[in-house]
Amino acid sequence: MSTRPIAIVGAGSIGVAWALTFARGGRTVRVQDPDAARRDAVAAELNERLVALDRHGLLDESVATIAARVTVTAELAVAVADAEHVQECAPERVDLKRELFTTLDGLAPADASLASSSSFLPASQFADEVPGRARCLVAHPGNPPHLLPAVELVPAPFTDQAVVDRLAALLESVGMSPVRLKREVDGFVFNRLQGAVLREAYCLVRDGVIDVEDLDRVVRDGLGRRWAVVGPFETVDLNTRGGIAAHAERMGPSYERMGAERGQHDPWTPELVDTVDTQRRRQLPLDRWDERIAWRDERLLAVAAALAGAGEREDA
């Protein structure tokens, strides 16, 4: 494991969670923020989250050992000195990120990767004029990063693929689950999927189909539990004997009609279904379908047991 530090620029909620993630993975972390109040809050917020993780048996080391790996500074130059990676967690403003990445490019070691935690802004909007733009990209985490391991790696057209590879390896080494996007797209994948669900949720409430509480119940007690174990493609692949191709044949027209109700006409063409089916079959040959069903059900049982246990602790 490299002994070079990780720099976190911005000590808000996401920045503290990133610091925890890297420190928990054994890395030395320097957190920078120009706001003295935010700097002063880091230690307590970090400790509170570490104590919570420890309470659930999710730490391999003591709270004090992990917390000791994190230091806080007001100076960017101090934070990024000798850094292997810089994770920017500043507000979602193009002008701010543009200025910040130009400064970081001048201060950080030439081989350090520079990634933004941006939720919507692609790197091409704020790093296109940075001399070292080849090492700039977006590493968008779920919120909070120390509890949601998925992180989207979104390269700009000018990002060096070797930088993406190194950052993916670094993130995997600290327990994250990096997802590589092939190209930039507004909102990336996380928020586009979340947005699709939210748009339909708002429409269903507007149309008098369901109220907010029951809509959340459908997701929390149904879709959400299932998606904690398998994603949307694997869900339908395992829900239909014959796999995703059989599901698309049976259900595709119904989903097309539902989309058309909202003015969206994106039919699952035979070519698209074949692409998805081919990728799924590489992951899971159909002769292992029953085996995977059993695996899914065991995971769902584990989720149910964990949630039941949490409920008992709340009632105690």
Walk me through the structure.
The protein has 316 residues and is α/β, with parallel strands linked by helices. The chain folds into two domains: 6-180, Rossmann fold (3-Layer(aba) Sandwich), CATH 3.40.50.720; 228-315, no CATH class. It has helices at residues 13-24, 36-55, 63-67, 76-80, 94-107, 161-173, 190-206, 212-227, 232-239, 243-261, 270-283, 289-315, and strands at 6-9, 29-32, 70-73, 85-88, 113-116, 136-141, 150-155, 177-180. The protein has an eight-stranded mixed β-sheet with strand order 3-2-1-4-5-6-7-8, with helices on both faces. Helix 10 (243-261) packs across helix 11. The chain starts with 5 loop residues before the first strand and ends with a helix.
Strand order of the largest sheet: 3-2-1-4-5-6-7-8
Mean pLDDT: 96
The largest sheet, given as strand count, sense and whether it forms a barrel, is: 8 strands, mixed
Q: Report the β-strand fraction as a percent range.
A: 5-15%
End-to-end C-alpha gap: 43 Å
Number of domains: 2
Rg for CA atoms: 22 Å
CATH topology annotation of the largest domain: Rossmann fold
Number of helices: 12
The CATH class of the largest domain is identified as Alpha Beta
Helix- and strand-based class? alpha/beta
